What we know:
With 129 residues, this protein is mainly alpha-helical. The chain is built from five helices and no strands. Helix 1 packs across helix 2, helix 1 packs antiparallel against helix 3 and helix 4 runs antiparallel to helix 5. The longest helix has 28 residues. The chain is globular. It starts with a helix and ends with a helix.
Amino acid sequence: MNYRITFMINALIAVLLGLGFLILPGRILDQFGVDEYAATKLISQFFGTALLGLGLLLWFAKDVNEANLQKGMGIALLVGAAAGLVITVLGTTSGILRANWWIAMVVYTVLGLAYAYLVFQKPKKMAQE
């Protein structure tokens, strides 16, 4: 596992979800069992634009070779994954996310573990080699 592959996977997930929230917010919200209101759809579209931007940024940054930049991005994305996981748990326990909540939880957990490995473990292994 390396930053390039992790950024690519994260980019594809973010772009696909971003486009989904941007173009079909009602359908995506329905997949999570969230009530559809005009404000909820609008906020979902804002979320979609942020995900789309993040995905494109990660796609273009996948070929960055500078270790400090990769690590900084890894830390930022680890914090984002952890925050997303907390929000998913809060949304589930409050009853807002009523269906398929586990999908978001799996995505945040897998990406968070990947970034944690890259940020904390990979440098140690490289230093020992």
